[in-house]
Amino acid sequence: MFKQYQLPYAYDALEPVIDALTMETHHSKHHATYTATLNTLAEKAGVQDQEITSLLANLDQIEDPALRNGIRNNGGGFYNHNLYFQIMGPNAGGEPTGALKEKMDAAFGSYDAFVEKISALATGQFGSGWAWMSVTPDGDLVLSNSANQDNPISLGTGNKPIFALDVWEHAYYLKYKNLRAAYVKEFFNVVDWNAVSALYEAAIK
């Protein structure tokens, strides 16, 4: 059974960047529904015992097209939101440090350049989707975006996401309305770079 990520912080802990109602709706409604639907579909497909990254990387193993598409969407929603909620926290923001900072500086030029590049991917994503920083099989850092609940794993890149920025309207519309760029700008104030660094270290092992 796939288990929804449980927040280690309260729904109002990310205010004023993300309001409590958005967090509660996002986590207890949207994410919970993705998780429940994934479990139902995975059981029907006989893949309920697989690890989520393996499942998303091998969607072609699911012969039934409807089940495959449902698991792609709901499995992506499950995985993506687990990562998104994991890399945020109260009293966060600032800049990365240590090995991750060095790698980001080498890959993107500076932290500010990283913010500029991934913000452009996030705001430029047409319709619902995500912006990502991922670790390649060679240990490099790359940026990308994807539509709907796709991610670098389900798209078959072989890359491991360590940073997820949700740009579905449900992630920001209650507070920011149609101003996606304003939400994206503020998002970096709640990024927990310690959590991202831990994901980076795990990805390069």
Features of the shown structure:
single chain; 205 residues; mainly alpha; Helix Hairpins; minor pseudopilin epsh fold; 2 domains; 3-stranded antiparallel β-sheet; 8 helices; 10% strand; globular
Structural notes for this entry:
With 205 residues, the protein is mainly α. It folds into two domains: 20-86, Helix Hairpins, CATH 1.10.287; 98-203, Iron/manganese superoxide dismutase, C-terminal domain (minor pseudopilin epsh fold), CATH 3.55.40. The protein has eight helices and three strands. The chain has helices at 20-45, 52-57, 65-86, 98-108, 111-124, 173-176, 180-187, 193-203; strands at 129-135, 141-147, 160-166. Strands 2-1-3 form a three-stranded antiparallel sheet. It is globular.
Please give the order of strands in the largest beta sheet.
2-1-3
Shape: globular
| End-to-end separation | 26 Å
Portion of residues within helices: 40-55%
| Overall pLDDT | 98
The fold-level CATH name of the largest domain is minor pseudopilin epsh fold
Order of helices and strands: HHHHHEEEHHH
Main sheet record: 3 strands, antiparallel
CATH uppermost class of the largest domain: Alpha Beta
Number of domain modules: 2
| Residue fraction in strands | 5-15%
Low-confidence stretches: none
Summed up, the helix count is: 8
For the CA atoms, what is the radius of gyration?
16 Å
Assign the CATH superfamily of the largest domain: Iron/manganese superoxide dismutase, C-terminal domain
